[in-house]
């Protein structure tokens, strides 16, 4: 086994995750890709008879951890690296993929009470169920002359965070109210890797592009969300808690759970 310092990159895509090891000069040492067991969930919820509308695209969070585990093992064996040689891990994820969880990071979809509810599952970036919600967010943003519109070409995409949260609130309010957190999938993976700290790490890259956040202004205001739907007014305080970290900032040391511990396996 080699002991030269190396770093691991985890690239979570639409249907698979790739693990890549590089040395400190950027030379690729080895990689491996492993498909998700459920790929994209577009027709029927796993383990149920619940059919999905054609605009839906969901994922199973257990797939992310299990596929990543297999990919890392395979790539590290190919690179002949000792575990001690790995000095850093970077994560990227197709966004905006949104997961509702409890306060300890448990995805709602793995709880028996919500397994049959599509809104409790991870909404993949290409989930297009929130068209009317995105249109309303854009319309009200224009009516209020919200300054963030200038950063996004004057429109809010149905693939972004707040249309998907509003869709959940309006189509499955029991899921919205049961969720202590709504997380970008990439942030959730990082949270699992560093353990369950008091504060949830959130990427400014994903928040700035898909969640209408900026370093200067933060998220949109309470009044804006109240104008969209009164039930959404406290979404930032009640559903998006955490610390925002710029890309490249260490979220913590490796100390997370074993894959599956928070997924009922």
Précis, in short:
This protein is of the alpha/beta class and 265 residues long. The protein is built from 8 helices and 10 strands.
How does this model look, in words?
With 265 residues, this protein is an alpha/beta fold. Helices cover 30% and strands 18% of the residues. It contains eight helices and ten strands. It has helices spanning 61-79, 131-144, 161-171, 173-178, 185-194, 204-210, 222-228, 235-239, and strands at 6-12, 16-23, 28-35, 58-59, 86-93, 98-101, 122-123, 181-184, 201-203, 243-245. It has a four-stranded mixed beta sheet with strand order 3-2-1-5. The protein has a two-stranded antiparallel sheet with strand order 4-7. A hairpin with a 4-residue loop joins strand 2 and strand 3. The longest helix has 19 residues, at 61-79. The two termini are 32 Å apart.
């Amino acid at each position: 086994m080699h002991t030269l310092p190396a770093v691991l990159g985890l690239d979570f895509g639409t249907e698979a995750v790739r693990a890549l090891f590089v040395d400190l000069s950027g030379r690729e040492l080895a990689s491996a890709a492993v498909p998700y067991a459920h790929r994209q969930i577009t027709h029927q919820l796993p383990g149920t008879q619940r059919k999905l509308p054609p605009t839906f695209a969901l994922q199973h969070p257990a797939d992310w951890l299990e596929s990543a585990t297999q990919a890392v093992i395979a790539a590290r064996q190919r690179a002949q690296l000792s575990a001690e040689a790995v000095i850093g891990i970077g994560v990227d994820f197709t966004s905006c993929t949104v997961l509702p969880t409890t306060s300890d990071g448990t995805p709602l979809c793995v709880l028996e009470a919500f397994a049959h509810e599509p809104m409790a599952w991870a909404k993949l970036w290409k989930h297009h169920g929130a068209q009317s919600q995105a249109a309303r967010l854009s319309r009200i943003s224009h009516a209020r002359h919200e300054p963030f519109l200038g950063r996004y070409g004057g429109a809010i995409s149905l693939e972004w965070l707040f249309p998907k949260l509003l869709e959940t609130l309006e189509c499955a309010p029991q899921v919205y109210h049961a969720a202590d957190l709504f997380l970008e999938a990439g942030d959730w993976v990082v949270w699992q890797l560093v353990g369950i700290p008091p504060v949830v790490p959130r990427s400014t890259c994903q928040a700035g592009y898909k969640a209408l956040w900026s370093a200067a202004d933060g998220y949109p205001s309470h009044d804006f969300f109240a104008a969209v739907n009164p039930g959404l007014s406290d979404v930032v305080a009640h559903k998006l808690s955490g610390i925002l970290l710029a890309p490249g900032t260490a979220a913590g040391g490796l100390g997370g759970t074993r894959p599956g511990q928070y997924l009922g396996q």
